[in-house]
Amino acid sequence: MHAEAEEAAAAGCLLLCLALCGGAAETGAQAAESQWRAVDVILDCFLAMDGGHRGAFASPANKERALLVLKQVPVPEDSSLEGFTDFQGDTVAQDDPRVVFEASVDQVQIPQAEALLHADCSDAEVTCEISRYVLQAKQEAPAEEATWFISNVQVSGGGPSVSMVMKTLGDAKSGASWHPTLKLPLSPQGTVRTTVEFQVTTQTQSLTASLGSSVSLHCGFSMAPGLDLISVDWRQQHQGRGQQVYSWTSGKDQAKRQGATLDPDQLHMARNASLTLPGLTVKDEGVHICQITTSRYQAQQIIQLNIQASPKVQLSLISRALPPTLVCHIVGYYPLNVAVTWTREEPGGAPRQVSGASFSNLRQSLAGTFAISSSLVAEPGPAGATYTCQVIHSSLEEPLAASTWVPPSEQRTSGFLIASSLFLLALLFLGLQRWQAQRDLPRP
């Protein structure tokens, strides 16, 4: 692309960023009254030359730079869009090595298009990869001559992910130039013209939920007229093991995971195949794959589900004898990693971190949560000290702490001596009583 085109695209991106970021503050009534404008969404991509894929990124080998232009995507109208210019194919430089895919979205909806436009506003990165798409073996190839590609687009920072199946338009005219590598006819502007016929998207690629709660894993899709929905399949993969969670095929559903549900009305009316999982356990953690199959195409989205449980902390002074021993019990947490630190604070002083703590063996409950204990020999000194056990865990917004007061060593020494003296006096008194009783017994 010429420098002019790149500058125009960058200016358009900035204007869209301003428009969408400003439009986010609109009320629901204002949004309902907003007008829509169709704009071109331009994405820097890589073209993988090593085979077809159905919703997953290809290997890094044999990649070429490419440009994906989603033509005339509706976005909310805003005054900041004034001056924005759409992509002009004739501005592509003859010596530019990038393959330019022009993709019409007239037949499908791209519900996450705004996230692609304002990614720069939130300092997010858009990753885009295009690869050849191979039709399923059990399906017959359509009569028209065409080639298929699939584009996988992801927004970083927990943003959306969308996979789009694109079909090339068979409108090559006699004398049209051909791409040397793809062996496809090019438009007069030197682009590969396609139309998006199927897309599968998720609003977030990763989410975290609390143990015992309920979660909805979002998966939506859109397909061109003439295509039929065949099946929805949810699978889970974790630590090298895979299993089916839920399946829907031609109106019949089957839940392999107890309580897993999918709303049939939402599936047909809103093209929403989101899966609800109630009563989460640690076994629900892992990669969840939503695969949508139509009468011609198949694509999927991958969602990472993380489970967490917050720890409970209890600090006890288990031994008042010299030297005193403290034990900090940390129970009921998930995932495994937890950090424990100890501090000591004398009256009128500042807390200071202390070392020398030891840890018990790690324990795991039937629910899958973990527990561990940390022990520390206290040195309170002549004035006594407050000891604090602090726990850091991914489920906590702030560290969790428990404290206890350890009295001065002199008090414990005095108390120990008094207790020992009383014990000896008691033994002496009992001995005298026994001796007196034996002496008073009549002799034979």
Write the layout of secondary structure elements.
Blueprint lengths: L2 H21 L4 H6 L2 E17 L10 E14 L22 E6 L8 H5 L8 E7 L15 E8 L5 E8 L23 E11 L3 E5 L4 E3 L2 E4 L5 E10 L2 E9 L2 E4 L8 H6 L5 E3 L8 E9 L3 E11 L3 E8 L5 E9 L5 E7 L6 E3 L3 E2 L3 E2 L5 E8 L7 E8 L7 E7 L2 H31 L5
Parallel strand pairs: 1-4, 2-3, 3-7, 8-16
Antiparallel strand pairs: 1-2, 4-5, 5-6, 6-7, 7-10, 9-14, 11-12, 11-15, 12-13, 15-16, 17-18, 18-23, 19-20, 19-24, 21-23, 22-23, 24-25
Largest pleated sheet: 7 strands, mixed, barrel
Distance between the termini: 127 Å
Average pLDDT for all residues: 82
**SSE string:** HHEEEHEEEEEEEEEEHEEEEEEEEEEEEH
Helical percentage? 10-25%
The secondary structure category is: alpha+beta
Strand order of the largest sheet: 1-2-3-7-6-5-4
Instruction: Catalogue the unreliable spans.
Output: 1-33, 52-56, 412-418
Q: How many distinct domains? A: 4
**Helix count, DSSP H or I runs of 4 or more residues:** 5
Estimated radius of gyration: 34 Å
Number of strands: 25
Q: Strand fraction band?
A: 35-45%
Instruction: Estimate the global geometry from the Cα principal axes.
Output: elongated
Describe this structure in words.
The longest helix is centred in the last third of the chain and has 31 residues, at 409-439. The chain folds into four domains: 1-202, no CATH class; 204-307, Immunoglobulins (Immunoglobulin-like), CATH 2.60.40; 312-407, Sandwich (Immunoglobulin-like); 410-438. 16% of the residues lie in helices and 41% in strands. Strands 1-2-3-7-6-5-4 form a seven-stranded mixed β-barrel. It has a six-stranded mixed sheet with strand order 8-16-15-11-12-13, with no helix packed on it. It has five helices and 25 strands. The protein is an alpha+beta fold and 444 residues long.
